[in-house]
């Protein structure tokens, strides 16, 4: 048998040679549009460093660089039981986390709820009622045997850009990740959730509002003190790191000690909103234009899981409609025309196809899109997926390199979480390679050697991280060290 055995990803140079010329030309033009060479990676990183600075300045810039009032790393000796709510881009999760007496150990009980698609563009009341319902269900089943005195403290992981004047406040700057719910932007989301809970008589008080990246940073540092940055590469993408208050000019009016640590939620998805440096393809321009928030999250729209499948779909439609090659000729591409019909897992499956004849990719197109693909079309599909996935991983490395350069963090570990980081084939290796190019590291002497900066799988930031932050807040509060910590109404 020829051509049906398993094969090694990702290079398919050999299989490309036999393709028809017009198809090869299309592949070449996609390669030109999506490939980011070392010099460009370095230029993006340099600009990134200055944008991080700008975000911390009084004038501000595109990257919000939000102070979070998370002001300590855990020492591993935190204890207690906390409730955490994780409102991510795709799921809702409620957890009860017990930080045990054993250093850096914890127990977790959790329930996941699907975030109904219609809620993301629905009504604000419906959103909070749904979340309060989930919390109520969890509390009633988990806590029925535990008599509660007073209100249960909750760490609320709200993974959207939010201004925090206090740790238990979050004024939504803007929705991201395709959310578009009226009446929430510009508002503090904490009272909205608490009001819905109160209507149900659920005895919960939000003690800290947390970004998933800050949670990831803190949870990762709990088990590995070398962790200096928390990143999410999932439906959205972002990072948090620990800054010194003296390097945050926009907080100067608070007269905080210069060496006091402050976790910064960068919201780096907004990098290059002014389109100065990222090489944008015509597909990126369409994604932005058709999104609920055009002009926002320029960096995120090239990297995050929400958009990877959509970039791919736009390429396919373009190659069918507008190009000489006319892929899927004579077939009805109705299913492919539906925006956001393909998610990042579709691209993952293409890149993961182990067969020389791309059989799994062919089956995927049949099942999901009702399209039959010729062998040359399958080669083009595979290459397009590789290009999109590689660009995402290489761009993500620019953000990591920028924070490490700004803070002079080499050597360090970076904790990363999210579906793209955990599940997208070769994302980690491609990101690591880009870091080596950007920071001019010599080739590794052996595969077991560590790079000066290693991006590693993080601990559960939105659950354990949220609980730790609630514990750290409680510790600061009980020590009377309350600068910027809790909203004045909560000083009781
Ligand atoms: C949000 C961030 C979040 C990231 C990852 C972005 O869209 O703005 O707050 O950290 O997604 O979930």
TrEMBL record:
Q: Which PROSITE patterns match?
A: HEXOKINASE_1, HEXOKINASE_2
Which reaction does this enzyme catalyse, per its entry?
A: D-fructose + ATP = D-fructose 6-phosphate + ADP + H(+); a D-hexose + ATP = a D-hexose 6-phosphate + ADP + H(+)
Q: Which SUPFAM superfamilies match?
A: Actin-like ATPase domain
Pull one GO CC term from this UniProt entry. cytosol
EC number(s) stated in the UniProt entry for this protein: 2.7.1.-
Recorded metabolic or biological pathway in which this protein acts:
Carbohydrate metabolism; hexose metabolism; Carbohydrate degradation; glycolysis; D-glyceraldehyde 3-phosphate and glycerone phosphate from D-glucose: step 1/4
What InterPro entries would the database entry show?
ATPase_NBD, Hexokinase, Hexokinase_BS, Hexokinase_C, Hexokinase_N
Keywords associated with the record: Allosteric enzyme, ATP-binding, Glycolysis, Kinase, Nucleotide-binding, Transferase
Listed Pfam families: Hexokinase_1, Hexokinase_2
Q: What class of enzyme is it?
A: transferase
Citing just one GO molecular function, the answer is: ATP binding
- Looking at the record, the residues that make up the Hexokinase N-terminal domain are 27-222
Listed under GO biological process in this entry are: D-glucose import; fructose import across plasma membrane; fructose metabolic process; glucose metabolic process; glycolytic process; intracellular glucose homeostasis; mannose metabolic process
| Domain Hexokinase C-terminal: start-end pairs | 228-472
The Swiss-Prot or TrEMBL record describes its family as follows:
Belongs to the hexokinase family.
The record's annotation in PANTHER family points to: HEXOKINASE, HEXOKINASE TYPE 1-RELATED
- The entry's protein name is Phosphotransferase
């Amino acid at each position: 048998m020829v051509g049906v055995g398993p094969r090694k990803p990702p290079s398919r140079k050999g299989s490309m040679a036999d393709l028809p010329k017009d198809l090869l030309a299309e592949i070449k033009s996609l390669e030109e549009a999506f490939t980011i060479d070392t010099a460009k990676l370095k230029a993006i990183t340099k600009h990134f460093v200055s944008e991080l600075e700008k975000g911390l300045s009084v004038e501000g810039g595109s990257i919000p660089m939000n102070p979070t009032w998370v002001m300590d790393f855990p020492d591993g000796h935190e204890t207690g039981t906390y409730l955490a709510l994780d409102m991510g881009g795709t799921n809702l999760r409620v957890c009860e986390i017990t930080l045990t007496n054993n250093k850096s150990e914890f127990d977790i009980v959790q329930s996941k709820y699907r975030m109904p698609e219609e809620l993301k563009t629905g009504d604000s009341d419906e959103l909070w009622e749904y979340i309060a319902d989930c919390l109520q269900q969890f509390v009633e089943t988990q806590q029925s045997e535990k008599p509660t005195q007073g209100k249960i403290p909750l760490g609320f992981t709200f993974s959207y850009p939010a201004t925090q004047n206090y740790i238990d406040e979050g004024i939504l700057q803007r929705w991201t990740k395709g959310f578009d719910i009226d009446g929430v932007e510009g508002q503090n989301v904490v009272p909205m959730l608490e009001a819905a809970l109160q209507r149900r008589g659920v005895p919960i008080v939000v003690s800290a509002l947390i970004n998933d990246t800050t949670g990831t940073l803190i949870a990762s540092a709990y088990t590995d003190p070398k962790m200096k940055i928390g990143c999410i590469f999932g439906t959205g993408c972002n990072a948090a790191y620990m800054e010194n208050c003296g390097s945050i000019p926009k907080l100067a009016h608070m007269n905080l000690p210069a060496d006091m640590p402050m976790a910064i939620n960068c919201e780096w998805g907004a990098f290059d909103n002014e389109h100065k440096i990222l090489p944008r393809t015509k597909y990126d321009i369409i994604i932005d234009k058709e999104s609920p928030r055009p002009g926002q999250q320029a960096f995120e729209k090239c990297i995050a899981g929400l958009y990877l499948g959509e970039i791919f779909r736009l390429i396919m439609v373009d190659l069918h409609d507008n190009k000489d090659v006319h892929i899927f000729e004579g077939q009805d591409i109705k299913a492919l025309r539906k925006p956001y019909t393909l998610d990042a897992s579709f691209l993952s499956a293409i890149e993961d196809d182990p067969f020389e004849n791309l059989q799994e990719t062919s089956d995927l197109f049949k099942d999901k899109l009702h399209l039959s693909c010729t062998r040359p079309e399958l080669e083009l599909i595979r290459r397009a997926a590789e290009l999109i996935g590689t660009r995402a991983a290489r761009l993500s490395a620019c953000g990591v390199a920028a924070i490490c350069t700004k803070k002079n963090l080499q050597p360090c570990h970076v904790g990363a979480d999210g579906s793209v980081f955990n599940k997208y084939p070769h994302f980690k290796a491609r990101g690591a390679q880009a870091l080596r190019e950007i920071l001019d590291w010599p080739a590794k002497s052996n595969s077991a050697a560590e790079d000066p900066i290693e991006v590693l799988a993080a601990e559960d930031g939105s659950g354990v991280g949220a609980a730790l932050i609630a514990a750290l807040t409680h510790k600061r509060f009980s020590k009377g060290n309350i600068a910027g910590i809790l909203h004045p109404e909560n000083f009781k």
